[in-house]
Design a protein that fits this description.
Distance between the termini: 28 Å
Function: Transfers a succinyl group from succinyl-CoA to L-homoserine, forming succinyl-L-homoserine.
Keywords: Acyltransferase, Amino-acid biosynthesis, Cytoplasm, Methionine biosynthesis, Transferase
Number of helices: 10
Structural class: alpha/beta
Pfam families: Abhydrolase_1 (PF00561)
Subunit structure: Homodimer.
Strand content: 15-25%
Shape: globular
EC number: 2.3.1.46
Strand order of the largest sheet: 1-4-8-5-9-10-13-14
């Protein structure tokens, strides 16, 4: 395994793009005076890779100064996606809790957002920065959906896409789980307890991100009494993850982006850029069968890497060596799959 070099200072260029003319949305409606927060990290002369993650991810992809990136275990100098020769572009999603326009706490009328709208704001940032065609868009989970939506509409702006645990449409079972999560948040918000609703929804979501085998390994212990009642090890873990999430995110933004996942739809036949797909056999949210169907339906060259991982849907955050092999092949001079 390659050694990870000591952290070094990297060039960080960031800002907020103001779309003063507003933005017309894929599902109708319009947002006025849209702000898009972005960050570009790396050698100013290097080609650019856009890195997009789940609905909790944002513009801080890699470590920069004292700030830890959300994908810093995977992306960075010497890491699985080795950025020695690339710049990394990240954005905060539209409708989220970051610096890009999104719902305010307590706001109930923020419009529905599509993966196509996220692709549009990425395109606007690329144009604003006067970047040449991207070397790649690497997207995981929701970010993979955005990568597919981008490639469907603007194939000339990205040389290839790498899509991890995301398909051309959501699976109905995954939509079932997320629908209940959104209902919990909406009900709690109406009762003035939005943060508690988000805590419980995130706890439920965490049970879908990982595999049953991992939970069996980690949480098979006995229940203990807490405040006069039994609490199970897995329960303590899930609720602690919910607490951390509710402290950092806006309930209305969670609902907006969770819904956006379930509204996602692209036509694979219209995607003709070279596409690298990564599927995880244990992924409860994006079944292997959906990823295989996407590969068969793509209009351009495609390769599918099938991984096995205890981490299930969260493998894109954990499987360093497997992803290193995928990224090395996908980004090599011969990486345009035939």
């Amino acid at each position: 395994m390659n050694a990870v070099p000591e952290p070094t200072r990297v060039a960080v260029h960031e800002g907020v793009l103001e779309l003063e003319e507003g933005l017309s949305l894929h599902f109708g409606g319009r947002l006025e005076s849209v702000r898009v927060a972005w960050r570009l990290v790396g050698d100013p002369d290097a080609p650019v890779i856009a890195a997009l993650g789940g609905i909790s991810a944002g513009r801080s992809v890699v470590d920069a100064g004292d700030e830890k990136g959300w994908w810093s275990d995977i992306v960075g100098p010497g890491r699985a996606l080795d950025t020695t020769g690339y710049r990394v572009l990240g954005i905060d999603f539209l409708g989220g809790s970051g610096g890009t326009t999104g719902p305010r706490a307590g706001q109930s009328d923020f419009p529905s957002i599509a993966s196509q709208d996220q692709a549009e704001i990425l395109r606007r940032v690329i144009a604003h920065l006067k970047l040449p065609p991207l070397e790649a868009i690497v997207g995981a989970s929701y970010g993979g959906m955005v990568a597919l939506a981008f490639a469907e509409r603007w194939p000339e702006l990205a040389k290839r896409i790498v899509v991890i645990s995301a398909a051309h449409r959501p699976h109905p079972m995954a939509t079932a789980w997320r629908s209940v999560q959104r209902a919990v948040v909406r009900f709690a918000t109406q009762s003035g307890q939005g943060a508690e609703g988000l805590r419980l929804a995130r706890a439920l979501a965490m049970a879908t991100y990982r595999s049953p085998a991992e939970f069996e390994q980690r949480f098979a212990g006995r229940a203990t009494r807490v405040d006069g009642r039994f609490q199970f090890p897995v329960e303590s873990y899930l609720l602690s993850r919910g607490d951390a999430y509710a402290a950092a995110y806006i309930p209305e933004a969670f609902v907006c982006l969770s819904e956006s996942i379930d509204l996602h739809q692209v036509d694979p036949a219209r995607i003709r850029v070279p596409t690298w797909l990564v599927a995880v056999a244990e992924d409860q949210l994006v079944p292997l069968s959906d990823m295989r169907a996407l590969k068969r339906s793509l209009g351009g060259p495609a390769h599918l890497a099938e991984l096995t991982s205890l981490y299930g849907h969260d493998a894109f955050l954990k499987e360093t060596q497997a992803l290193r092999e995928v990224f090395t092949r996908a980004l090599s001079p011969a990486g345009d799959v035939k």
